[in-house]
């Protein structure tokens, strides 16, 4: 099997839903509804002998009667039907199928084996069984039953857990974040994590890959795909089961492949913000810009704990800042003073641009009467072009949705604590160092 076989899954032109339904609570109804809500604009064919029409679409009685081969088929029927459906789809020329139902008992698993045998001569790839689905938001392709429609973004999510996929998709949706693709692998009877990593390694719409898994089916294939992916873009992995005696092997394998292992789901969620939104250039140093000594101390502690490095400051940089902003305390961190106004943050970014050794710019701020968070955000947006190695923000208490979206549109990630900000940056540095050592 090759990556080319997966192109149908991630770049679909048409789709059939086998078992599409209007019965409330049924899998077929949920999958069909999500497909319609997503707005996929290719041909849609519901297949079910019990209906003549569904939501204005003519219903096909049997998969063998489809007018042409769907690029992807979503199978929502019982396991006993899988082999014959796959046989018919393969004969038509379908290249990918997602089996939403689970193989729970011996008879189900036997039906699955027969379905895999039926798929093999046709090079038809199967995701699942028990897959929540595959989502490619840029194509408005919501294939499966995720909890909500998904916004397009630059980060891919790949997971063996339906529940975590639903949770992460919902978390991102609530924060205006999106994905290039989101994949719930299910039982991995055919398509597994290695296959998907191999495809995403060269996917131009994916800037980074977040991987959640508890086991690897084909170690050699997985490692080859992981190396290829990590050479091209950051790959961060969360593996559950720290108490497993074999867990150290996973840590070593991830490191050897150039991936970065994270310890908690929160860490992966922070990277959806940082990698999906930000445009952070290569580099291992940073400059902190704050308004308050207390914030500066908190931020420095967070950076030290994460292993981050603050950029050394040339004297001429401090002198230039103090001439433009008399109350500033020069150096790194840069303290603008308790009475700092929003435009002072913009001035600081402009002056930093004249000194190339200052690294990535980090603004850590809590709202004050003289510098409300939303106005500081607008100052950052107006001057972000001067942060040539990237700009990340931490606003205690967060920002409203409109301000957040405006920051995102300009490539500025927003975190709510300096600890999360510092750890997110440290993982990017870890990735670059790991890649250099591979």
* Mean model confidence by pLDDT: 93
Assign the structural class, choosing from mainly alpha, mainly beta, alpha/beta, alpha+beta, or little secondary structure: alpha/beta
Give me the Rg, rounded: 25 Å
Q: List the strand order in the largest sheet.
A: 9-8-11-10-12-13-14
Low-confidence stretches: none
Q: Kindly provide the name of the CATH class of the largest domain.
A: Alpha Beta
Q: Roughly how much helix do the residues carry, as a percent range?
A: 40-55%
- Tally of individual helices: 15
**Span of the ends, CA to CA:** 27 Å
Number of strands: 20
The largest pleated sheet is described as: 7 strands, mixed
CATH architecture of the largest domain: 3-Layer(aba) Sandwich
3D shape: elongated
State the fourth-level CATH superfamily of the largest domain.
Answer: Succinyl-CoA synthetase domains
SS strand fraction: 15-25%
Q: Do you know the CATH topology of the largest domain?
A: Rossmann fold
Q: How many independent structural domains?
A: 3
Can you offer a commentary on this structure?
One of its GO terms (molecular function) is ATP binding. This is Acyl-CoA synthetase (NDP forming). InterPro entries: Acyl-CoA_Synth/Transferase, CoA-bd, NAD(P)-bd_dom_sf, Succ_CoA_lig_flav_dom, Succinyl-CoA_synth-like. The structure is a single chain. With 438 residues, the protein is of the alpha/beta class. It contains 15 helices and 20 strands. The chain has 3 domains: 1-131, Rossmann fold (3-Layer(aba) Sandwich), CATH 3.40.50.720; 146-277, Rossmann fold (3-Layer(aba) Sandwich); 280-436, Succinyl-CoA synthetase domains (Rossmann fold). It has a 7-stranded mixed sheet with strand order 9-8-11-10-12-13-14, sandwiched between helices.
């Amino acid at each position: 099997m090759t990556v080319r076989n997966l192109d149908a899954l991630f770049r679909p032109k048409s789709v059939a839903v086998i078992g599409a339904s209007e019965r409330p609570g049924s899998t077929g109804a949920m999958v069909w509804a999500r497909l319609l809500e997503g707005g996929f604009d290719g041909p849609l064919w519901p297949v079910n002998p019990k209906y003549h029409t569904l939501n204005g679409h003519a219903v096909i009685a049997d998969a063998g009667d489809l007018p042409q081969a769907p690029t992807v088929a979503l199978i929502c029927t019982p396991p006993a039907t899988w082999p014959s459906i796959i046989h018919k789809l393969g004969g038509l020329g379908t290249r990918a199928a997602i089996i939403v139902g689970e193989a729970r008992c011996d008879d189900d698993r036997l039906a699955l084996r027969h379905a895999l045998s039926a798929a093999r001569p046709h090079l038809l790839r199967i995701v699942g069984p028990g897959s929540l689905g595959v989502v490619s938001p840029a194509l408005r392709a919501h294939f499966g039953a995720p909890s909500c429609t998904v916004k397009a973004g630059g980060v891919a999510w790949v997971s063996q857990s339906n529940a975590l996929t639903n949770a992460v998709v919902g978390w991102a949706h609530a924060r205006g974040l999106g994905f290039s693709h989101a994949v719930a692998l299910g039982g991995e009877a055919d398509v597994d994590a290695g296959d998907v990593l191999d495809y995403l390694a060269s996917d131009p719409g994916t800037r980074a890959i977040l991987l959640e898994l508890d086991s690897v089916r084909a170690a050699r294939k997985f490692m080859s795909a992981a190396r290829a992916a990590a050479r091209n873009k950051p790959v961060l992995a969360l593996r559950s089961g720290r108490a497993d005696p074999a867990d150290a092997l996973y840590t070593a394998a991830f490191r050897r492949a150039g991936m970065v292992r994270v310890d908690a789901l929160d860490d992966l969620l922070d990277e959806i913000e940082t990698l999906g939104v930000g445009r952070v250039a290569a580099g291992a140093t940073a400059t902190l810009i704050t308004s308050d000594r207390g914030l500066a101390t908190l931020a420095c502690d967070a950076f030290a704990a994460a292993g981050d490095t603050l950029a050394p400051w040339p004297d001429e940089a401090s002198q230039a800042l103090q001439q433009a902003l008399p109350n500033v305390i020069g150096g790194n961190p840069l303290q603008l003073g308790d009475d700092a106004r929003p435009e002072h943050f913009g001035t600081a970014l402009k002056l930093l641009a004249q000194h190339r050794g200052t690294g990535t710019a980090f603004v850590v701020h809590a709202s004050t009467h003289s510098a409300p968070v939303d106005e500081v955000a607008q100052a950052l947006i107006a001057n972000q072009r001067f942060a040539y190695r990237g700009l990340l923000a931490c606003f205690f208490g967060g920002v409203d949705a409109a301000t957040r979206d405006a920051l995102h549109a300009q490539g500025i990630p927003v975190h709510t604590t300096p600890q999360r900000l510092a750890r997110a940056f440290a993982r990017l540095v870890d990735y670059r160092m790991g890649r250099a050592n591979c």
